[in-house]
Every structure is written in structure tokens, then in C-alpha cells.
Design brief:
The complex is a heterodimer of chains A (113) and B (115). Chain A is mainly β and 113 residues long. Chain A contains no helices and eleven strands. Classes of the chains: A mainly beta (113), B mainly beta (115).
Chain lengths: 113, 115
């Protein structure tokens, strides 16, 4: 079955440290991939998306993600965490041939001063 | 510009009461519309989606229903709420012309508490 998995429901980093949020998908055909961020009591906002162009995708707020077909992964990174990055992050996939977007369970990022 | 409005923002309802959450979209026509539910500590569960007026696809059998009476209006309803219906409901839109690579745009959400 087609699915998306985010490893780690909670990730804690120190301010200035590397942020790495993991996402793997299950599909025989590479899907379209998205990362969204959600701040408390708000809707989701797009960080970046992969649509079969460049495998390294740059997004807003200094985030980037790399699509690795061999690993069926689309991990999100940021070189240096900022306090304002504390939020919940969702990886999402849309499989080719459909209009449904499936979301992972989310990873809550904590940033320590 | 394209915007998504959801209301009410917050709702507290007793078990067994009806529900109506409304979502309207501005600045586009013929969008794909979606209802997601986010329960506490869980991800987003796709409930319904619609590719046009009167066209509703249900993803999860449950106590809820959806309707799309107008091109830019999407309504989530229930005749009798259950405790398990509590959650944060998000309306999302895939704007026309963006194709299958387009991202979803989300409303600000409606928080429902069933007591």
C-alpha cells in the first residue's frame, strides 16, 4: 500500500544546531512530495515541494530537502535551528494519477536555547 | 489573491448535537477541496474531497458527511456528534491550474470539542 512515514514524533535540537526531520514513502513510482509546517492552532503552510525536477529542493526559512529515489526518502534539513522553527512538521505525498494528498503523522520540533 | 475561510474557528458541542462547518474559497474557480481532521497528537486524516459541485468522495466511513453546494463552498456536517468527533478540522484547496504537482492551501481550521 502507498504510504508516508515520518520517523520520530518529537525531535529536540539546540539553537544553532542542525535540524534533520526524516520522511520515507512507500511507492513503486516516485510521488510528488511536500513538507508543510504548522504553528499552534493554525493551518498548514508549505515549506517546499518536489515535483521531479531538481532532487535538492530549497524552501522557505532556510529549509531544504533532498529526494533520494534509492532510499525512498525526502528528509528535511536546516543547517542552523532558530527558536522560531519550533513547530510541527508534516511530510506529505501525492501519488501520480490522483488528487489526494496523504500526510505523515508529523514531527514536533523543539528548539532549546 | 486566493484565500480560504473557515468558520466557526472554535466550537463546543454536546454529544448527539448536529454539526456544520463551512469553508469558502476566494480568488479561484473550480478548485479541488478537501476536509482533513487532526486529532490531538496525530497526523492529518483525509475525510472527504471534492473535484466539483455535488461531487464528494469519502475516505473514511464515519459519522460525518460533506457537501459542495457551490463551486467555492465546502461544508462538513454531522447529524449526531460523537465524543470521537472532537478534533481540529482543516479545509484545504488545490487551486485550479496547478495540476497534480500543486500544493494544498489550508484554512485556519475549526477546533471542535464534543462534550
Amino acid at each position: 500500500a502507498q504510504s508516508v512515514t515520518q520517523l520520530g514524533s518529537h525531535v529536540s535540537v539546540s539553537e544553532g544546531a542542525l535540524v534533520l526531520l526524516r520522511c520515507n514513502y512507500s511507492s513503486s513510482v516516485p510521488p510528488y512530495l511536500f513538507w508543510y509546517v504548522q504553528y499552534p492552532n493554525q493551518g498548514l503552510q508549505l515549506l517546499l515541494k518536489y515535483t521531479s525536477a531538481a532532487t535538492l529542493v530549497k524552501g522557505i526559512n532556510g529549509f531544504e530537502a533532498e529526494f533520494k529515489k534509492s532510499e525512498t526518502s525526502f528528509h528535511l534539513t536546516k543547517p542552523s535551528a532558530h527558536m522560531s522553527d519550533a513547530a510541527e512538521y508534516f511530510c506529505a505525498v501525492r501519488f501520480t494519477g490522483g488528487f489526494k494528498t496523504i500526510f505523515g503523522a508529523g514531527t514536533r520540533l523543539f528548539v532549546k536555547a | 489573491s486566493q484565500t480560504i475561510h473557515q468558520w466557526p474557528a472554535t466550537l463546543v458541542q454536546p454529544v448527539g448535537s448536529p454539526l456544520s462547518l463551512e469553508c469558502t474559497v476566494e480568488g479561484t474557480s473550480n478548485p479541488n477541496l478537501y476536509w482533513y481532521r487532526q486529532a490531538a497528537g496525530r497526523g492529518l486524516q483525509l475525510l472527504f474531497y471534492s473535484v466539483g459541485i455535488g461531487q464528494i468522495s469519502s475516505e473514511v466511513p464515519q459519522n460525518l458527511s460533506a457537501s459542495r453546494p457551490q463551486d467555492r463552498q465546502f461544508i462538513l456536517s454531522s447529524k449526531k456528534l460523537l465524543l470521537s468527533d472532537s478534533g481540529f478540522y482543516l479545509c484545504a484547496c488545490l487551486f485550479s491550474g496547478t495540476g497534480r504537482t500543486g500544493e494544498l492551501f489550508f484554512g485556519e481550521g475549526s477546533r471542535l470539542t464534543v462534550l
